[in-house]
Specification:
- The protein has helices spanning 3-9, 14-45, 51-63, 80-89, 102-119, 123-134, 138-143, 145-168, 170-173.
- It is 72% helix and 0% strand.
- 17% of the residues are buried.
- It has one domain (3-47, 79-173).
- The longest helix has 32 residues, at 14-45.
- Helix 2 crosses helix 5, helix 2 (14-45) packs antiparallel against helix 8 (145-168) and helix 5 packs across helix 8.
- It contains 9 helices and no strands.
- It is an all-alpha fold.
- It is elongated and about 65 Å long.
């Protein structure tokens, strides 16, 4: 018996809901991997430090005997593997850049609810949520396009996965 048959034939069983939630978490995990890969590409290519990182460099410089060349901005460059690991795990030396897996859980929430909203034709609810997510970051994204592009790709993946869930498992969501 296939996963789709179990969910369609027994839409209200506990097993159907466990499978649905498992699919949602798997899709959110896939989005996390794609986002981490994109972040790793950016970080391993080298990025100019943020103001916070410049402050950290200044503190490191004060505490160490190593002198940095005056007037030169240090370009951060790390290996792709380390950059991916840091992005995937949500760890960062700068606590402001650490995400603590919050995007994963927000994406899982979206993946769980969007198929319901889609199946009931409540597209305005999805649009409102995306707008609420977008507005607070707009100014930061004008200064850092790669972050905005990652947001767009992640949002598109969540939307596509949600559409596939709503289309392939209509009995669960109707």
């Amino acid at each position: 018996m296939s996963l789709k048959q179990i969910i369609i034939e027994n839409p209200h069983t506990l097993l159907a809901w466990i499978l649905y939630v498992s699919i949602v978490l798997s899709c959110s995990f896939a989005v996390r991997i794609v986002s981490a890969l994109l972040r790793a590409v950016q970080d391993s290519a080298g990025a100019l430090p943020s103001e916070r990182e410049k402050e950290l460099f200044k503190l490191i410089k004060e505490k160490s005997s190593t002198e940095l060349a005056p007037g030169k901005e240090k370009i951060l460059k790390i290996s792709f593997g380390r950059a991916f690991r840091r992005a995937f795990l949500g760890n960062h030396e700068d606590p402001i850049k650490a995400d603590y897996w919050f995007p994963f859980w927000i994406g899982a929430f979206e993946l769980f609810t969007y198929p319901f909203l889609m199946s009931f034709g409540l597209w305005s609810g999805i649009a409102l949520w995306i707008t609420l997510k977008t507005l607070p970051q707009w100014k930061a994204w004008t200064e850092n396009r790669p972050v905005f592009n990652r947001f767009l790709i992640g949002t598109a993946l969540v939307f596509i996965f949600s559409f596939l869930l709503a289309y392939n498992f209509p009995v669960v969501v109707k």
